[in-house]
């Protein structure tokens, strides 16, 4: 809830639209599919620019329970463009 309010406040202060990317919806059990979904989401956000992109539940995606190290590294590599 607090992240939601913070994201809305930043978007309002900067005068940009707020876009929410649900990190939980990115997850897929098949190798490479989660990364593909992330890339599609980031490409859409770039097309919408300027926009404040709020990635909800990102902390769960950076250290998903039971995931392979490759999946985590792939997510970090693709999300590094954000930071």
Please summarize what this structure is:
The protein has 83 residues and is an alpha+beta fold. The protein is 59% helix and 14% strand. The protein has a two-stranded parallel sheet with strand order 1-2.
Describe this structure in words.
Helix content is 59%, strand content 14%. It is α+β, with helices and mostly antiparallel strands and 83 residues long. The mean pLDDT is 79. The chain is built from five helices and two strands, in the order αβααβαα. It is flat and about 40 Å long. Helix 3 packs parallel to helix 5 (69-79). The chain has a two-stranded parallel ribbon with strand order 1-2.
Give descriptors for this structure.
83 residues; alpha+beta; flat; single chain; two-stranded parallel ribbon; 2 strands
Task: Summarize the SSE layout with pairings.
Elements lengths: L1 H13 L2 E6 H4 L6 H16 L2 E6 L1 H5 L6 H11 L4
Parallel strand pairs: 1-2
Helix coverage percent of residues?
A: 55-70%
Instruction: Please report the distance between the alpha carbons of the first and last residues.
Output: 22 Å
Structural class: alpha+beta
Number of helices: 5
Order of helices and strands: HEHHEHH
Low-confidence stretches: none
Shape: flat
Secondary structure tally: strands? 2
Kindly report the spatial arrangement of strands forming the biggest sheet: 1-2
Radius of gyration, CA atoms, in whole angstroms: 13 Å
Major beta sheet summary = 2 strands, parallel
Beta content: 5-15%
Mean pLDDT: 79
